[in-house]
Amino acid sequence: MCLSEIKKGQSVHILRIADQEIRTQFVRFGISEGSRITCLEKIPFGPFMLRHNRQEIAIGREVADKIQVEQRMDT
Amino acid sequence: MNGNNCPHHHPPHSDEPIATDAMKIVLVGNPNVGKSVFFGFLTGIYTDVSNYPGTTIEISSGSWQGHQIIDTPGIYGVSSFNDEEIVARDIILGADIILNVVDATHLERDLFLSRQLIDMGKPVVIALNFCDELSGAKMAVETDLLADLLGVPVIPTTAVNGEGMDQIADSLLLARAGLQDPELHGRLHEMLKVVGSQAEALLVLEGDPHVASRHGIVPGEEREEIYINRRNRVNDIVRHVLTVSSTTESLRDRLGRAVINPVTGVPILGLVLYVIYTAIGVWVAGDIVGITEEVIMQGHYEPWIRGLATRFISPDSIPGLLLIGEFGLLTMTITYLLGLLLPLVIGFYTVLSIMEDTGYLPRLATLVDRMMTTVGLNGRAVIPIILGFGCVQLGTITTRLLATSREKTIATVLLNFAVPCSAQIGVIAGMLAAVGGSLTLLYVAVIFTVLAMVGTVLNRTLPGKSSALLIDLPPMRLPRLENVVRKTATRSFFFMKEAYPWFFLGSFIVAVLQISGGLVLWQQLLAPVTEGWLQIPREAATAFVMGLVRRDFGAAGLTELAMSPMQVVTSLIVITLFVPCIASLMILFKERGSREAMLVWVGSWAVAFLVGGIFSQVLI
């Protein structure tokens, strides 16, 4: 599924980031394909507040649209 | 050194042995890691701030034991994604020693930069800052192991209370090149033959277009691969050195979320705005400016300078009018700059610095992002808009931090069309208080509608695409007074330095218009529009023309006219949407070019009279 479909409080694993610049910026913040991220807040029709370990970031909806994620049962 | 003939800003140093004479020690770190506290500790109060050549980015430098200390903008990595990174990159390339400040509670993010610096082959010392926060976050970092894994000295510090700072001073000259990625090392060696320094070799491999073109070669395409490997190495190091004994959410984490969640975030924003309004709108713009502008400048300075000048020139002569007349360069302009603008600029920059240092600003950007995207901006544009309420020029200059030219245009237009500056807000608020709450709401609604409509139209019609929000949310922290003062002083100084010539030029133009009779002519030309179309007294035209000089002059000119409440609202709408003051116009020309500036200027005449007229025709 797409990251923009995530619900508040939900944790998912990143499968694919379909934009090189976003990929690069994410890697710097410590998030890459395979990382587990949690949605801390979600503003209706707006941006997402995400956490990976202790790193918190905010991304606009357009960014979230370019990220494929999946929910795994193991965690 | 090979004999390439490309111009270098900084010749590569890393092949040379560490000399004992004066060295360049460069501070590098992610944003909000307390870098400037280290800078202040090492350099003391005698520091030099200047724009990095060819950019608008301010770089502080100072000296420590005969060595040069240079601060760099906060960055997440060394490359050239934005102006800050480009400037930091070039300073890092010229560094002899790097003091890398790392947030101990954000190792995964910060060590990415550290590893990159080490891969560049630069001698590095790491200051592991915010160590005091580790225990509260139920975390522990094995410093010695971290130093072993990186191959460079790691000093635990708590910059806020000075802990570890002496050790930093002792260790700086012990900086050494750390353990490079062994696999990368081989590839660097190849590139090294071409570019002459390991640091530049790495940046070329990572695809930095500028560094590659300096050497006349094609940038490498291995960035993603190198980044992923570096990320994996960092994660591996963090797994070894960091233990987290609890993952429960702290109060600070909860606060960080509460300011973003609209249900709690919007009331908190309301409270923040109220505090800002009280601090700046009431206290600075009222009480402080009352003293600086009226008592000090108009009460003491202006009579003094007039007395001094009349000894040499007649006040009625043309040079006399230009220098000490109503719009005189030595009277009104100086009073405006020092008595009114300076206190407001300091006030607004203080607020901005506090919001930055607490970590509130990026969260505010997140909260308002949705709203901003309808006008083709992202949440970060909230910064120039907030500053625009202080001074439209201040906002216009700050649009530089926006990512694309498209966003800069949209933000500039909104600022110059519909954001009243603080000087004007004071007068407008006074007049609105007299007409009552419902008409005040009507005024606000009209201005917001215009703001939204202009933004939406621009977003639909301007070519290209605006950038989306992607920001780091640093932890919420109590701001440090010294840091806030330092930032505010630097920023205010640079703004004033940049803005003052335009104020003189603007005042000069207006003074010439007044002396030549041009102002009266304009008032007469405008009169039919005022009386016929806007249905407000003829004399209001004078106020509009005065608005060219200072926007609050324009608004103040209206207070003396006898008008019905609806006429008051009409005239306030017009004066708010009316063209920016002439000094702002000058900055507009400089920032956005003459074509765009003229469009904005002519456009705001049109919009002001059009909206004001429609309002008047429908409601009066």
What would a concise description of this structure say?
The complex is a heterodimer of chains A (75) and B (620). Chain A has 75 residues and is α+β, with helices and mostly antiparallel strands.
Descriptive keywords:
heterodimer, A: 75 residues, alpha+beta, globular, B: 620 residues, alpha/beta, 26 helices, elongated, disordered N terminus
Please, could you describe this protein's structure?
The complex is a heterodimer of chains A (75) and B (620). Chain A has helices at residues 20-29, 61-65, and strands at 11-17, 36-42, 48-52, 55-59, 67-70. With 75 residues, chain A is of the alpha+beta class. Chain A is globular. The model of chain A has no long low-confidence stretch (mean pLDDT 92). Helices cover 20% and strands 37% of the residues of chain A. The longest helix of chain A is centred in the first third of the chain and has 10 residues, at 20-29. Chain A has a 5-stranded antiparallel β-sheet. In chain A, a hairpin with a 2-residue loop joins strand 3 (48-52) and strand 4 (55-59). Chain A has 2 helices and 5 strands, in the order E-H-E-E-E-H-E. Chain B is of the alpha/beta class. Chain B is built from 26 helices and 11 strands. In chain B, strands 1, 2, 3, 4, 5, 6, 8 and 9 form an 8-stranded mixed β-sheet that branches. A two-stranded antiparallel sheet of chain B has the order 7-10. In chain B, helix 7 packs across helix 8 (198-205), helix 16 packs antiparallel against helix 17 (392-398) and helix 19 (422-435) packs parallel to helix 24 (551-559). The longest helix of chain B has 49 residues, at 262-310. Chain B is elongated and about 80 Å long. In chain B, 47% of the residues are buried. Classes of the chains: A alpha+beta (75), B alpha/beta (620). The A-B interface holds A 20-25, 27-30, 32, 40-41, 43-47, 49, 52-63 and B 76-77, 81, 105-106, 108-109, 112-113, 137, 223-224, 227-228, 231, 234-235, 256-257, 260-262, 362-363, 365-367, 369-370, 373, 378-379, 468-473, 475.
